[in-house]
Design a protein that fits this description.
With about 110 residues, the protein is mainly alpha-helical. Helix content is about 40%, strand content about 0%. It has five helices and no strands. α3 crosses α5. The protein is globular, with a radius of gyration of 15 Å.
Length: about 110
């Protein structure tokens, strides 16, 4: 499956997610405040964890002052870093077939 198609897959109740991937209370903010509907939305939310060089102001704390966390707090998120971690955890549990980090298998013909 192509990467651009994988990004369009639903973030919630994804076919590639094993049981117990989702946690009702942890995911509530991601769904309601961050409005994550697709895998692409989860990727965007989790990016701040890997963009430390671009935004060295992000710190792994509830009261982080980086621009992404401040923006999320104004939307009503109480702990933007935790939401980013939760999004990253969900993404890491998705099966390779549906995961954007895995490359599609090349078709070989006899």
């Amino acid at each position: 499956m192509a990467k651009n198609i994988k990004k369009q897959l639903p973030a919630w109740d994804n076919l590639g997610a094993p049981q117990k991937t989702y946690h009702k209370t942890k995911n509530k903010c991601l769904q309601e405040t961050h409005n994550t509907k697709s895998i692409k939305n989860l990727i965007k939310c989790s990016k701040r964890l890997t963009r430390i060089r671009e935004d060295p102001h992000h710190i792994p704390q509830k009261n982080c002052k980086c621009s992404d966390c401040q923006r999320d707090r104004t939307k009503g998120c109480k702990n933007p870093h935790l939401c980013a971690q939760t999004a990253n955890e969900i993404l890491s549990k998705i099966a390779p077939k549906f995961n954007t980090k895995s490359k599609p298998k090349k078709m070989t013909y006899p």
